[in-house]
Amino acid sequence: MRRRVFLVLLVGLLGRWAAVQGGEAATPGLPKRICSLTLATDEMLAALVGPERVVGVSRFVDHAGISNVAGHYPASVPRIRADLEQIIALRPDLVCVASYNSADFLEMLHKSSLPVFRHEETHTFAGVMRDLTALGERVGAQEKAKSVVADMERRLSDLQTALASPGVRPRVLYWSDGWTAGSHTTIGEMIERAGGVNVAASLGMEGMAEVSVERALAADPDVLLLVAWKAGEPATAVELPPALRTLRAVREGRVVSVEGRALSAASQFAVDGAERLARRLHPECFQKQ
């Protein structure tokens, strides 16, 4: 309770200071002390600005199983949570947040008048590109953002060309501890771009959705897609519930896994997920590469 009162008072003082200084418009030039509270913006910023302009990154940035920029930011850069007191102490001139941060935290941050970039939860490759472009504009790295987006588009186009004649498109079911990816998900789009058919979407499921073992068995996918959360350790059928191991795809050895940092990426690294999955689903299309 006392800490919350302290934060309210501190936010009030910051708001008055910002009003005197002219708020966000008073920040001269480009942001030079950027705080990132999301792994997606950690990854985007790594391609857009030098690490010397980043004064705080998310606590997930060094997790090699989910982060594509582990080791990029020096140890001297604090790993932070959505803690307003900690953030204020870093004196940021831009704070990158996400739509999934708590409403209370976002409200307090708004009242502090600290400049904010809000990374919206993205469910498509196009959404990732929009966020990259918007963040590039906010940090004065428009040309770098254009280059990163152009590289994503080129690689996706090359992938489409490589899969021009993939033969049969296998029906793929993503499984992660009872959850799957339906339509309007980045993973679902990865499956489609990798030359597969997203089983969950064909069943009418939307977003990240729970799926029972019974429904997975009834769906009878051609391929079961798993996520490997530990770096360098592919996921295997051994980790599945016993009943799910009776799936035809499991019995016939058609279980594939993709690294979590690629499959769950909400940044430019999402293309890695599509490329790696495509090579597992259609290795014959990449034999000459």
Account of the protein in words:
- The structure is a single chain.
- The longest helix has 21 residues, at 142-162.
- Helix content is 41%, strand content 15%.
- It is an alpha/beta fold and 289 residues long.
- Mean pLDDT is 88; it is low at 1-28.
- The chain has helices spanning 2-21, 39-48, 84-89, 103-111, 125-138, 142-162, 186-193, 199-202, 213-219, 248-251, 260-263, 270-281; strands at residues 34-36, 54-58, 79-80, 94-98, 116-119, 171-174, 179-181, 197-198, 208-210, 223-228, 255-259.
- The strands form three sheets. It has a five-stranded parallel sheet with strand order 3-2-1-4-5, sandwiched between helices.
- The chain folds into two domains: 2-140, 3-Layer(aba) Sandwich (Rossmann fold), CATH 3.40.50; 167-284, Nitrogenase molybdenum iron protein domain (Rossmann fold), CATH 3.40.50.
- It is built from twelve helices and eleven strands.
